[in-house]
Amino acid sequence: MFIKTSIIYIIFPALLSLQDVLPSLKMQAKKSYPIEQTLQSCIAKDFANTALLKCYQTAYSEWDKELNQYYKDLKQLLNNKQQRVLKNAQRNWINYRDSEFSMLSAIYGSLNGNQWQLLVMATKVEIVKQRALELHDYIQTLRFDTLSVD
Predict the structure, then answer these.
(1) What's the rounded Cα separation, in Å, for the pair 30 and 12?
(2) Which domain holds residue 80?
């Protein structure tokens, strides 16, 4: 019992430190990501809902491509067992994504006004972007670990 308690006292503060650092690093990555820069430039050009919707549709397509590339890149860094776990996790995430998209359409699709269509698309972009960045984080961690071992 003493050992478990000691480990908790040692590890918990370290985890809290990481918790403070990682979000700021992720925010930096999100702000400087080319897809985000392109999206912000596109949004700044025209504020009409149809133009904004096209900006978000393009961003969605780009993040989806990025997500698929990260999935392939991550898979190459993993052993067979890890690849099976990744495949299962990705299937579960796809089910989650599809359920969220259905919920968005069910809730906002029933509301009047085309601004809701824009909100749905912007939310879809965020969901796919978040997963892409999660996969990217795994890749970065594995690459960093490989560098530190050498």
Answers:
(1) 27
(2) 33-149
Give the separation between CA 62 and CA 2, rounded to whole angstroms.
51
pTM for the structure as a whole: 0.77
Distances (CA, A) of 52 to 59, 66, 122: 11, 21, 9
How far, in whole angstroms, is CA 118 from its chain's centroid?
A: 20
**CA angle, residues 20, 24, 26, in degrees to nearest 5:** 120
51: domain CATH number? 1.20.1270
The residue type of 101 is F
Residues 71-122 pLDDT 10s: 999 999 999 999 999 999 999 999 999 999 999 999 998 999 889 999 999 9
23 vs 35: CA distance, rounded Å: 19
CB atoms within 10 A of CB 108: 16
Average pLDDT over residues 15-31: 45
If 0-12 CB within 10 Å is exposed, 13-18 middle and 19+ buried, where does residue 145 land?
exposed
What is the number of domains present in the chain? 1
